[in-house]
């Protein structure tokens, strides 16, 4: 009888440990809302995102609602705001990323291949070398500080951490991050996917940079559910997940390129834009 009770206790303990194991998610639909507050003459340096060439020249508030569809090698990020809609479709199997924009009645887009991304990385390394920076040390130093604060977001119990990053210029950016340890996405999920599509992380490799200097979130052992950023110049950004569907049925047609867009290869788009994405001269 004692042996039976001991066995039952051990089995119950094993079951509790198994249930506590972190779930690795291969398919998901994640909805989120992001709010941005831009001070007058906000620019790249003020945001602390040294890798993002384009700056914002107007002040005001913006809100973006984002939905990410994640299904292994297929990823779709749909962002909607008052300024227009954007869609990024990543097909890692065919090594192609398509970016679509719908604004002011126009539907345009471009696609990049793995070779295009490698060429872009080489250009960025050349720029860093020209500035006297080391191309091999492109990632900022990251420090994650745990706290005892907890809150529930979209039905999940979340923990609060402070993420500090030191850029290659020596400045320190700080963000408040809430995450759930219950699950994490399988490799390939874009870290920028639930930040309103504002980051540079929606690339073929998923990326760990959420934009606005928020590198290092891929080092958090869980799934990021909310982010709060404040800069000394008055810029503020908040993102919060509003709904999560784990292991849903997602048909492949969700990732098909919609009709009606004027889509060109990245090589043609580079001729129309200067460094950092700004349009050249007069058209």
Describe the structure.
There is one protein chain. This protein is an alpha+beta fold. It has one domain: Lipoprotein localisation LolA/LolB/LppX (outer membrane lipoprotein receptor (LolB), chain A, Clam). Helix content is 16%, strand content 42%. It has four helices and 14 strands. The protein has a twelve-stranded mixed β-sheet with strand order 8-9-10-12-13-2-3-4-5-6-7-14. The protein has a two-stranded parallel ribbon with strand order 1-11. Strand 8 and strand 9 form a beta hairpin. The radius of gyration is 21 Å and the shape is globular.
Number of helices: 4
Q: Please name the CATH topology.
A: outer membrane lipoprotein receptor (LolB), chain A
Shape: globular
Under CATH, the homologous superfamily reads Lipoprotein localisation LolA/LolB/LppX
Mean pLDDT: 77
Most strands sheet: 12 strands, mixed
Integer-rounded radius of gyration: 21 Å
* SSE-based structural type: alpha+beta
CATH architecture: Clam
* H-E order: HEEHEEEEEHEEEEEEEH
Distance between the termini: 87 Å
Percent range for helical residues? Answer: 10-25%
CATH class: Mainly Beta
Q: What is the beta-strand fraction?
A: 35-45%
Strand order of the largest sheet: 8-9-10-12-13-2-3-4-5-6-7-14
Number of strands: 14
> How many individual domains?
1
Q: Which regions contain 5 or more consecutive residues with pLDDT less than 50?
A: 2-19, 44-57, 195-213, 273-283
Q: Determine the oligomeric state from the structure.
A: single chain
